[in-house]
Specification:
By secondary structure, this protein is mainly α. Helix content is 66%, strand content 4%.
Length: 601
């Protein structure tokens, strides 16, 4: 019998009472006291003391505790504001939480500055001591960062100003988007939808519907283009001012450091992708032909090639994911089942929710929560699997030192895309007939198109936008132009209609936590493909190897991680070419099937 899962999440087990939760307010003020204690310890710490190692060990313990608590609080607040964009109390908590983060940043800045005072030989002794060896990578990383920063007082000032400057612009963006309504005509009636709901409707077999939804969405974004032009320009301006004062020339300096990767690695990845674009152009052209079109437009790319769109109810989708995970790893399957049963997922299709999906960790309670809007499409199932991959990553790290749990986005996207791949591949293999197989294969290739073309367009746009922003405000019209230029290049000029509003509709350009919220996705995709190939080769033995790789993601740079667990060099195109070859094989299979008389109705 079909088991039924509740599609709303349970936040009360973490803190009861939502944004009014007294337990949560107590938790916040406890954490505030802990932060004060830490600040005092850091102030006391100096390189001249004979007991430097002992004091630093105390600081590290305290830092670990607060890091967990701050992440926990931050996760709760983002869940509250995502589930109900009109929850004004949650909005206040976002601001409160940003103050905490600023305080922590200030303390860490001052600690970094003290690290710099320590000479190299003494520093190496400290890192090799029993008490600190476990966290030596993150301590050293912090010291290296410290060398690149301004004085403590200047950095503290920047941090404080970020709360109501930098981060506030991003918050403002969320508020405006949450209030937007998109009017869509259905069966002769005009219905009003949130942006998230309307965006889900664009994947429709009927081109008329797709075009209508795209037009209405574009209209809604265009109406607010002046506001989003402001939020984006000011957010970017703030970032650039900070870089300028620190003498950082390259806009990629910070995102690369955050992702613990080398520029050579990024270049090798994009080079390999660019060299293989022709296969995906061929795919898009074939798809246009199958849809009876001369050329595809942006809103046709994700259109189903088969008209029989099966909508899968939430509980059935959940069972499917658990089953597919089980073929690879019983631990992953058990974890996913538990997440559905314990209601770690908010998937209900309703108004007033923030668009998009995310997974957030509560490291203190050792839980995670997933947020998305599930309407039963195959891409919803993929998103769900994706977010569960993130959740599993956190799960295997629960007992790792809190300071070694902070993995960067590029490797964070590894576990998620790995989970997504398992589900997508198993789906293709389980196809009942040729038409279904072709449709499922197509759905899988969509991922490569997204990572190699769509994400590439975001990377190209941001690179160019930030260059122009250095000279001053970039007007909305110019942002439109830049967006289209980037899309044309990334899609090798193969589309008919592009999406000039994408710079405002894509939340990721407006995120302040992580700059360049794009290339790490592509990295994660290709990196996970490499892991996937290894997993297929090694069978059951791989489960534990995979877990040990994930557990290392917070304590080494990606080049070392790849060397240690996969024995590959990420700075040369070879690894990337090999991973892309797996995607090209899908395209070739698709083209062969499509060219050998498979009827598409
Ligand atoms: Zn993700």
């Amino acid at each position: 019998m079909q088991k039924t899962y509740n599609p709303t999440w349970d936040l009360d087990v973490i803190f009861p009472g939502g944004s009014e939760s007294e337990e949560f307010y107590t938790y916040l003020s406890d954490n505030e006291k802990e932060i004060e204690k830490l600040a005092a310890e850091v102030a006391r710490f100096s390189a001249e003391q004979p007991d430097t190692i002992e004091i630093l060990a105390i600081i590290v313990k305290q830092l670990e505790k607060i890091t967990k608590k701050t992440r926990e609080a931050s996760a709760f607040v983002s869940c509250l504001s995502a589930q109900d964009v009109n929850d004004s109390k949650a909005g206040l908590l976002v601001a409160k939480n940003n103050e905490f983060k600023a305080k922590m940043d200030a303390i860490q800045t001052s600690l970094q500055q003290k690290f710099i005072q320590i000479d190299e030989a003494r520093w190496n002794d400290i890192l090799q001591s029993d008490a600190l060896e476990e966290v030596s990578f993150v301590l050293n990383e912090s010291r290296e960062k410290g060398k690149e920063r301004l004085s403590v007082s200047e950095e503290v000032l920047i941090n404080d100003l970020e709360v109501d400057g930098y981060h506030a612009w991003s918050q403002m963006y969320d508020t405006i988007v949450g209030k937007m309504q998109v009017e869509i005509e259905e069966d002769g009636k005009v219905n009003s939808y949130s942006v998230g709901q309307a965006s889900n409707k664009i994947v429709n077999p009927d081109r008329g519907v797709r075009k209508h939804v795209f037009t209405q969405l574009s209209k809604a974004w265009k109406e607010n283009a002046d506001l989003f032009g402001q939020t984006l320009n000011h957010l970017a301006g703030f970032r650039l001012q900070k870089y300028r004062h620190r003498d950082w020339e390259d806009i990629l300096k910070e995102p690369l450091a955050m992702n613990r990767m080398k520029k050579d690695t990024l270049d090798a990845m994009w080079t390999a992708i660019t060299n293989n674009k022709k296969y995906f152009v061929e795919f898009l052209n074939k798809k246009a032909e199958l849809l009876g079109l001369e050329k595809l437009s942006m809103y046709d790319i994700s259109a189903p090639i088969s008209k029989s769109v099966t909508k899968v109810p939430y509980s059935k989708g959940a069972d499917f994911i658990v089953e597919q995970f089980g073929k690879f790893s019983s631990k992953m399957a058990d974890f996913a089942k538990m997440a559905f049963e314990k209601r770690w997922i908010e998937a209900e299709d309703r108004t007033g929710k923030r668009p998009g999906g995310f997974c957030t960790s509560f490291p203190d309670s050792e839980q995670t929560r997933i947020f998305m809007t599930y309407s039963g499409t195959s891409s919803n199932i993929a998103t769900l699997a994706h977010e569960l991959g993130h959740a599993y990553h956190q799960h295997v790290m629960n007992d790792v030192n809190g300071l070694n749990q902070r993995y960067a986005m590029n490797v964070a996207e590894t576990a998620s895309t790995f989970a997504e791949l398992i589900v997508a591949d198993a789906t293709v293999e389980s196809a009942q007939n040729k038409e279904e197989k072709l449709a499922l294969l197509e759905d899988k290739i969509q991922r490569s198109v997204a990572f190699f073309m769509n994400i590439h367009s975001r990377f190209l746009f941001e690179t160019q936008f930030y260059e122009e922003r250095k000279q001053g405000m970039v007007p909305a019209d110019r942002l439109n132009e830049l967006m289209i230029e980037a899309q044309k290049e990334a899609y090798s000029n193969t589309l008919d209609e592009y999406d000039e509003n994408f710079w405002s509709s894509k939340l990721h350009f407006h995120i302040t936590g992580v700059p360049f919220y794009n290339f790490p996705y592509t990295f994660g995709y290709l990196f996970s493909l490499g892991i996937y190939a290894a997993a297929k080769e090694r069978g059951n033995a791989f489960e534990d190897e995979y877990i040990s790789l994930l557990r290392d993601t917070g304590r080494m740079n990606v080049e070392d991680l790849a060397k240690k667990h996969l024995n590959v060099d990420l700075t040369t195109p070879d690894f990337w070419e090999a991973a892309i070859a797996l995607c090209v094989a899908d395209v070739e299979e698709f083209l062969t099937m499509a060219n050998t008389g498979t009827e598409i109705k």
